[in-house]
Every structure is written in structure tokens, then in C-alpha cells.
Amino acid sequence: MTTRDLGCFDVVVVGAGTGGLCVAIEAAAAGASVLVVDKLADVGGMLHIANGEFSGAGTRRQAARGIDDTPERHFDDVMRLSHGKADRDLVWQTVRAQGDTVDWLESEGFDFDPATPGLVHGHEVYSVPRTYWGVEFGRSVLRVLRRRLDDAVRSGSVRLLLGTRVRSAVLDDGRVTGVAGTGSDGGEVVAYGDAVVLATGGYDANPALRNEFLPPGCEDAIVACLDHATGDGLAMAVEIGADVSRDGFFIPVMGLIPDPGRSGFAVDYREAFLEFAPAYRTPHEIWVNRDGRRFVAEDGTSPEHRERALLRQPGIAMHVVWDRAIAETAEPLIRNGAGDWTHERMLAECERGRWIVAADTIEELAERLVVDAAGLTATVERYNAAVRAGHDPDFGRTTLPVPIGTPPFYGITSVAASLLSRDGLRVNGDLAVLNREGAPIPGLFAVGEVLGNNVFAGDNYVGGMSVTPAMTLGRLLGARLAAGRDAS
Fold first, then answer.
1. b/e 365-380 (16+ beta carbons within 10 angstroms → b)
2. Burial degree of 65 (CB within 10 A; 0-12, 13-18, 19+)
């Protein structure tokens, strides 16, 4: 089969997720001809399941609510939360413009949740409310980007090619001048561009590749991202000599449920996750490890503290334990973004046996959870004593509502999960991909999760510092590449 030549463009964008769409939209708006290629049948990448939280300081929305904030304060917060391990130059480059991104989304008719800007308690919080999300989470972001992309496609400034998997770069005397891959019909395709932008996202759905970057002992982390995140762009760049960070950072997403039908993967959190943040739900249960021992205060207000505590447990696994009395009175432990886990649905799930196990005794529950029975029995007895005394001598838990003593007893397993790729391609301040000698690879740029989240969050999670840098730096890169075309 002959190779189909798609032609030559000012900018070729590989990946139609958050960053890639923003590159394409801004480059086209500035007059560049753009090709967007993606292996999926639709645009949006992880925005289809992401919470889509983004952050920005000094926005119109903050001002309207009397919130005093600046990019400098935002930068200081990012460096504090990242323990100084984020890339200072790239963080400042994005943070100083993220307020403009928020205002741009507002001008584009973004459907903000009325509670925004707010503080998000799933990870360590900012010093002031500067996080935003839409009424439909990531899909709210996608709606704006899709509308702008569709306009550019109709005008002819963007060509969109879906169902096409890019596999290699085209090189001419050391410069990247295009990409080659496989089209939706199975035939080979090639496209040429003055600039090639990798916006292919992460690699966490490829456990073998992901585990190359995880620190020892974290290989059991379950996968929580969509299946398309297999690291194609990273692998393509490495093949031509690109450098990749290997920081060894990992901090888990907590509360995801292993999928019983798919080993190593999590139940889609759009369907179900366990709500562990006490800001959103009062904890009534206890959390134990495989030895049946508690390992952290379940009502602790520091997400990072409990995330790092989980990493120290065997198999980076935990088991949540409660009883019938708690099931009948507590708010649902299982949640999702749609908010449709009612009390009645939670009670039905306790009996269903899909993820939750039930038993008439603690010993039987331990056996079903594959937890040490003697350890769990002793732990429940000690916890119940703490409830009666109103004091937890082991971990200082202050929320001690009721003992665990009314059969049947329930338990559910959760395992530390990976959702965002921590490491990624090394780039300079212009987002040019660097080779292993630290020099830019001519013609090749990267934006979004293919850079790894460490550059924007260090060894932690920092609110809005995944989606927002992808949008902000994507917009800046698109405009800059278009301007470079005019200059040349």
C-alpha cells in the first residue's frame, strides 16, 4: 500500500487533548495552517473523564467575589505545595498567564460551577480560593475547546484527522519536519510541518512503561486513566534522542476501587470512588492494611499525609471496614461526580457483592478481604474502646461517631492509583523538546501531560496544575509558532 501524503502545514499537532486543542486553536487564530492528528475517534482525551479543575489568580471571577489574589501568590503556593521541586521557570511561565486563561474561558461562555472559585480538598489546598471547574467537569472545558476547533475546521485553517496513530518522526538533517503513522484504513500516512507539537498525553495506561518511572514498591498501583494514554508521543521522541525526566516521584490517587473484571485497573471513577476527604463526608469507618492494622487518622485534614501513609502499606493497598449500623446511618461512602450514589443505592451495593464484601463476624470479614484476622479483630476492639473513651491514642482521630459492632460487617479494598504521568519529556522555556545533551531538537515541541506532572507539581498534587498549564502553555505555544512563521 502506498503512503498517503497529507501535505505540508505550518504546525502539526499530535494529540487532540487539552494542550493540543489549545495549540491548534491559537495557531489557527493567528493565521497558521494547522493539522491535528489523534489516534482516537473523537477529540478531548482525558477531558472526557477528568474533573477538569483549573486554577488562575487575579481573575475577573475572583474580583467579583472580593478575593484578593495575584500570580505571585499563586506561584508561591505552587512552590510551597510542590516542596520546591517543581520547575520554577515553567511554573512561573504558566502561572503568570493562568488568570488570563480563566478569563478567556469565561469570555467563551464557559459554564462555571456557581461554587467557583473555591478550595478543593481532595489534595492540599491553596491559601485562597483560585480553583475553578465546570458544571460538567472536564466536559465543560471540552465544550469550549470543541466549539473553537469546529470554527477553525470550518474556516479551513485546521485540518482534523482522527483515527490516525502517529508512530515516528520525519527527520531532515536532524530537524523534525513531519510525522508518519497509520491511518484509520490501516494505510501509511505522512504529514510535514514547519513545527511538530507533541500533545499526546501520558503513559499510565501502559503499566510496563509506567513502572519504569515509578519508585520501587509502587508497581502495584492500579491504573485510573483512559486506555489511550499509552505514551506514544514520549516513545516517539525518545526514539530520536529526546531526554526524559526520571525524578522517582509518585504520590497516589486514593479512593479508587480495583476493577474485578480487569486486573491492574480501577473502576471508572465516573461510576464510583470512595470519598475519603473529611471536608466532604464525615468518616465513620476505619482503614486497615493487610495486617489488619490502622495506619492513619481517617479524619485527618491533610490529603498528602494520608496519601504518603498509604504508600508505606504492603501492596500500597488499604481496606475500609464498617458495620450495618454505620451503613444505615452514615452518608454514602461511595460517590461519583454525578452525585447519584444515594443512601438507598449504597445499602443495595452493600448486599450486591460486586466490590463490597459482607460477613457475620470480623474474622470472616478478614478472610474475605485477605487481611490478617487476629490483627483486624484486635484493631476493631481497640478502635471501639477509643470510641467509648472519646480518645484515639494511636493516631489522634477526633471523629469517633460509633463503634463497629453490629453485624453484618462490611469491607471494601482500595489500592493506590496512578492517574497522571509524573515524568515526561524535558523541554526548555520555549517548550522545545531537549535531547540527552540538553540541546533543543529542531522543529519539535511538546505541551501537556507528555511533559509529566512533576514540572508543575513537584512530588505532590497541586490544584489545577495539570489542565491549566496544558491550556495556558498550549495557547502561548500556538501563538508563538504562528508568529515565528510570519517572522521567517
1. bbeebebbbebbbebb
2. exposed
**347 Cβ contact list (under 8 Å, min separation 6):** 327, 328
Distance of CA 293 to CAs 175, 200, 375, 378, Å? Answer: 57, 41, 6, 8
State the Cα–Cα distance between residues 117 and 131, nearest whole angstrom: 5
What does the buried/exposed string (b/e) look like for 456-483 if buried means 16 or more CB atoms within 10 Å of the residue's CB? bbbbbbbbbbbbbbbbbbbbbbbbbbbe
* Cβ proximity of 53 and 464 under 8 Å: yes
Cell of 441: 531538537
Euclidean distance between CA atoms 32 and 25, whole angstroms: 10
What are the CA-CA distances from residue 383 to residues 279, 293, 400 (Å)?
22, 10, 9
The span from the CA of 112 to the CA of 102, in Å, is 10
246 and 210 Cβ atoms separated by less than 8 Å: no
**Per-residue pLDDT tens over the stretch 78-93:** 999 999 999 999 999 9
**pTM: predicted TM-score of the whole model, two decimal places:** 0.96
Sign of CA dihedral 460, 463, 466, 470: negative
Rounded Cα distance, 479 and 473, in Å: 10
- For the segment 387-400, the average pLDDT, to the nearest whole number, is 97
Average pLDDT (307-317) is 97
Question: What CA–CA distance (Å, rounded) separates 443 from 30?
Answer: 19
Which residue has 507533541 as its cell numbers? 198
Among 486, 347, 466, 481, which Cα is nearest to 78's?
466
Q: For 173-316, list the strands marked E by DSSP.
A: 175-182, 188-198, 222-223, 273-274, 286-288
Peptide bond between residue 207 and the one before it cis (omega within 30 degrees of 0): no
Per-residue pLDDT of 247-276, as tens digits, reads: 999 999 999 999 999 999 999 999 999 999
User: Which amino acid, residue 218?
Assistant: C
Q: Are 232 and 12 in contact (CB under 8 A)?
A: no
